[in-house]
Amino acid sequence: MINIRSFLVFAFDLAAVLIAWIGAFVLRFNLEWPRAFHAEIAYGALILMAVQLAACRWAGLYRGMWSFASLPDLRRLIRAVGISVIAVLALAAFDGTWLLIPRSIVLLYPLLLIMIMGGGRIAWRLWKESRLLPVSDAERKPVVIVGAGTAGAMLLRELARSPDWKVVAMVDDDRHKRGLELSGCRVEGATVDLPAILRRHGARHVILAMPSASAEALQAVTRLATEAGAALFTIPGLAELMSGRVAINMMRPVKIEDLLGRESVRIDNDNVRAMLTGKRILVTGAGGSIGSELCRQLARFEPDCVVLLESSEFALYMIEQWFGEHRPEVPIVRLAGDVKDESRMAQVFAEHRPQVVFHAAAYKHVPLMEVGNAWQAVRNNVAGTLTVARAARDAEAERFVLISTDKAVNPTNVMGATKRIAEMVCEVLQNGPGTTRFHVVRFGNVLGSTGSVIPKFQAQIAHGGPVTVTHPEINRYFMSIPEAAQLVLQAAAMGQGGEIFVLDMGAPVKIVDLARNMIRLSGFTEDEIRIEFTGLRPGEKLYEELLADAEETLPTPHEKLRIARSRAVPDGLYEGVLAWLAQGPQEDEAVRAGLKRWVPEYEPRA
Prior knowledge:
By secondary structure, the protein is an alpha/beta fold. Helix content is 47%, strand content 15%. The protein is built from 21 helices and 22 strands. The strands form 5 sheets. The protein has a 9-stranded mixed β-sheet, with helices on both faces. The protein has a 7-stranded mixed β-sheet with strand order 3-4-2-1-5-6-7, sandwiched between helices. It has a two-stranded parallel ribbon with strand order 14-17. Keywords: Membrane, Transmembrane, Transmembrane helix. Belongs to the polysaccharide synthase family. InterPro entries: NAD(P)-bd_dom_sf, Polysac_CapD-like, Polysaccharide_Synthase-Rel. Pfam families: CoA_binding_3 (PF13727), Polysacc_synt_2 (PF02719).
């Protein structure tokens, strides 16, 4: 069956050859019909149409869609016309022995052919694009693009076909671009001129077309846009664009993660794959923020099975549902259980014999553990770690990875001190009998984790404020959950046993600045959503540290991982901690005294 579209394209190109060939002769003879060249016109047209069709097929001209005709199509067209020029030169080379071809025809014919064939394709694209926009400009939302570089140009072309958006102006801090036009849209000023440009055009939307923009640039644009009452969007990163996973016009609102300037993590997939592929893996706390992301990351490496251990029924259900929807090919085992339950842990390890264990189960909320729950923090964070770690050793697991925290450094709270003891327990087990390698990975706050400051601020903003910050000077290190999980896998793959890995958390962020940025991203000003300072909570300190005073770090092959050299574990710690745990429940003050005995740097905050 003949393809109607292909037939029409062939017919158009044949007509273009005929019109360009005749037109070249007419132009050559000052718009008069060249009566003396009938044979040349007739025979030449037949030869050139055959040559041109073959050339167009060779150049791939019919693979392109006219609705999206662009520079690659123009290059194919020029290659095809170049074959026609060779054919005309061959005809002219006969020098009158057969056909007499004026020399000027060699120049006029290809020029006319390019104009007709290229012009037809461009005209078709313009007509199709006009049909794709059934709404008038008045119905499209005006938007200003920040960034007149390559990404801005790509976005501008995409939005030109959008029925929803109309780009009214661009801004760029490169002074050489100001006043110039890009696809008919003028670069009207620098970033600082954004509020005035928004008012001039009545625009309420801004799109940041700077995939590699720094956090400072993002924060500046966010402030200017929100002060002008405009919503701010951004485009995908360069890595996503270049990989083809997303399109330039897949815009999304700017998120707080963008403003923190965290670079994407690159891990050594080969080493991680060698550690995980075909292995039985156990994740404790599998439904928590870090545990669930670890499970999602683990699924990429084709494990033999993933054992999901979780004390919360709902959290276990949610991670099970994720596997069913996104990774149904990965075998999973769903187990409800408490890491403090020795008999349950023994049963789990005996039945499933995990080869790699990621211990992410912990109590982590500082104020909750500080008052009334101190002994429960000890039981969960110390006894729970000890129970799982010994079960891993007895089952001859290859690796045990403890997820720790920056709050274990010079701790001022119960949660941090219990995590430091958990670290030391792993160090003792590493130096004891057995072949299991024990690793500790220590990092700070993760963005969006359950109960963390960002979800809290989001809820407070949604209710109209105020946003509560404990102290104007308090700061914290932040990292995205996927970034933390990937670095945990990288640390586990490179560890030889006994290391405390410290993740590069970047620069600390003031919590009050975080609050201000979140208020702006929500479309409010600080006059509309006020910030209220409530004072430091029990056990809370102004500054978090990733290394204790007595510690130093060593570099690793990965630029975002270092190894901490902590002070030696006190003699008798293992036996002493076991005896302490055996004493049973204790009051908060007794717990603090016990923690101080084993963690001398622990200084409880009054």
